[in-house]
Amino acid sequence: MVAACANRRTRLLAQLPPGAVAVLHTAPEVARNGDSHYPYRYDSAFYYLTGFTEPESALVLVAARGDKPARSILFCRAKNPDREIWDGLRHGPQAARAAFGFDEAYPIEDLDSSLVRLRDHAPSGIDLLPLLAEMRLVKDDVEQATMQRAATISALAHVRAMQHARAGLHEYEIEAELLYEFRRHGAQGQAYPPIVAAGANACVLHYSANNALARDGDLVLIDAGCELDGYASDITRTWPVSGRFTAPQRQLYQLVLAAQGAALDAVVPGRPYAGIHAAALDVLAQGMLDLGLLDQNTCGSAADVIADKRHLQFYMHGTGHWLGLDVHDVGAYRHTGNAQAADQPQPSRALQAGMVLTVEPGIYVRPAPGVPEQYWNTGIRIEDDVLVTATGHTILSAAAPKSVADIEKLMQ
């Protein structure tokens, strides 16, 4: 990790103007209530460049100029034996410099005075975030290995939830099985608040209450992933709490699974990112017509459904997002050049080996006139974490079963 972070700093410094000085602060500690704080989480960009997890820290990068070499300087909390009794280890500047490979390190109290000196005659107005977003979009070997491990832990948690679920449990009881499995395998916590949605709750995209009963006949949609060493995983599985899909549930589920299969086929280096959503949408739109969710006499073909946006009644979100240090990770989805007119959308960026993204089509059927009643109050989403490779892709979350046969076998 130390070598990887040092390499990232070197690459970033090479992109800065000669002599430029750039500053990146980590996230502050945040009070929850009274004198209690939320669990601390460092800033993702700061961690990407440093591997340093203590609050009250800043990184200063000084680009090379003439015969003066580039420098990376850490400012952090000084050693304080009294506070360390209460709060735990502080590296202090000297130990942090040696342990994390910085050129220099000083107490955080010296930051302002140091910047006055460093910025004398240096270019100003350097915004690191766009440069970092592009760097973070392609994961190196260290990141890929961490994300594989995070996805595997989360997949095991989804398996545990399926195995321990039964009708009559509250959603939060099922959630507890997930969180246990995260920590049991060494993940530091959850990458985002888990969604555990039974029955009609699965039609609420960002459902978070997790307090209803799972009843016999319900599908349970779980969208949950752990965070491991700063990196997020993000998996969704949907399964019957009774262990067996009903016929209507199976029809909708197979449709979403087919849509995901089509979307995964589009995850190939060189192809446009937007093609993933387009592939899933083609399958879903045709399925909506075939199952009678939409009236073909009124809506026409699948292409007509998409053009008229009639699919939004049942599928209203995108088919994925970048994944990394943030669960919705940084990086543009379209080219950001000025080749096209300002009023024209930029083309979708091409997929590249080393990118990691989610593929997560779904369908959400609420009661409505003209919608077959056997599908009402059914929400289904299937989401995997996917690494783009030189020849195609690898599904990092493959350890979580998703075929009807595999789910029903596991739950017996």
UniProtKB/TrEMBL annotation:
Keywords: Aminopeptidase, Hydrolase, Manganese, Metal-binding, Metalloprotease, Protease. It holds the Pfam family Peptidase_M24. One of its GO terms (cellular component) is cytosol. Its cofactor is Mn(2+). Residues 1-136 form the Aminopeptidase P N-terminal domain. Its EC number is 3.4.11.9. PANTHER family: XAA-PRO AMINOPEPTIDASE 3 (PTHR43226:SF4). This is Xaa-Pro aminopeptidase. It comes from Duganella phyllosphaerae. The lineage of its organism: Bacteria, Pseudomonadati, Pseudomonadota, Betaproteobacteria, Burkholderiales.
